[in-house]
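=== Structure Prediction Worksheet ===
Name of assembly: unnamed complex
Input type: mixed (protein and possibly other molecules)
Chain count: two
Listed entries:
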Amino acid sequence: MKVFAFSKRNDLEILRDPLNLLFGVGFPIVLLLLLTVIQRNIPVALFEIEHLAPGIIVFGLSFMTLFSATLIAKDRGSSFLQRLYTTPLTAGDFIMGYLLPILPICIAQSVICFAMAVLLGLHVTIHILTSVLFTLPVALLFVSLGLLCGSIFTDKQVGGICGALLTNLTAWLSGIWFDLGLVGGAFQKIANLLPFVHAVEMERAVLRGDYAGVFPHIWWVMGYAAAVTAIAVFAFLRQMKRQ
Amino acid sequence: MDAIKTVELTKEYKDLTAVDGLNLTVRQGELLSLLGVNGAGKTTTIKMLTRLTQPTSGDAYLLGKSILTESAAVKNMIAVSPQETAVAPNLTVWENLELIAGVHGLNKDEAKGKVTELSGRFGLGEVANKRAGKLSGGWQRRLSIAMALISDPQILFLDEPTLGLDVLARSDLWDMIRALKGSMTVILTTHYMEEAEALSDRVAIMKNGRLLLTGTPAEIKRRAGTDKFDEAFVRIVKEAVV
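=== Predicted Assembly ===
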């Protein structure tokens, strides 16, 4: 009940911010629309919807880091979190309360993006449903990154780091818009060491029903998700102790 | 039993002793104002008593429960209205009150009853569906205190509750704070001497982390040899060598 009350508050704070809705839902949908229109007017297969939709979904999830980190950093910067620290909420309640309520928002975002992709020509198969489920580890990775950044940065720093840097890293190092092999070299090596391209490749494999193709990408995503969650919990507890 | 009893309560930072061996007793049901200039140690004292900061040494007992060893029990009997307005800006007034009821473990019916009662008591009905972030400073402060009372605390900490408010809003809040007297123990910090004089049963004055003296406003004026409370405060703080 206690953690539910806190989770509900966090959901409402995120969903009632019009900028969050604009970037979280509006932006990925506009990208899907725009790139599909471009695809229809070029002779090469660059932004085909089966290839594009999983990438846009992963890119859209990167905004959850920004939303989550901004909420936590703002709470830390005001007296609101201090007030809650004097209540019977435990450290575990705070961590669960910040992590869990954003996961359903991530699922909703993926469902909306897939619905738009279907309108734009994506074939309706059971694999869409599986793809939505497979966004969970990716969502956990981005939400935990939010907990981490929100625990160590101010809300202004979060805007720059999560709003600009992370979304750009996700965009450029994930192979959403172009084949990383075309660039090759160090760029591709670095991209392969990060989880973003693996998240996109995992989603693409699931969407085409190639469950063997999920590996090894899922290990990268889950490994990063577990590591980032552990570091985020440590960082949050540390700042809680400091406050 | 005393509401609060601190025993040599001390908080040291790297090269600063923020609170130095504080021995203070607060009786149940009384309103005690903690006064002092900036850096006197008021906020650190409140932070230790509300479990936001761990003391370096010493202990404090809230209704007999140690802040060091019985933290959960202490958290269940206290509430805080922090210095800055601590409300969730995108939640309505009603939802803010429900949130605090929820984190204190009240079930749905209990929460609804409590929110209705406090909303009426603090005149929040007319703004119940407004988002807290859109309210004026006075309304936000009113909401902040109502939120602190949701859990029926036995000890309430009000950190500069009227800071930055206009005269009318301040007067309204004074009435609300007066109405709490006797039903719970209230610890108030303020820089407004007229506020401390008007509301307090007793006053405790701190300087450089140490407690200079405690007494009723009348006793403090008598001791300083003046009939003006703000003048008495200034004399006592200036003359004290700590």
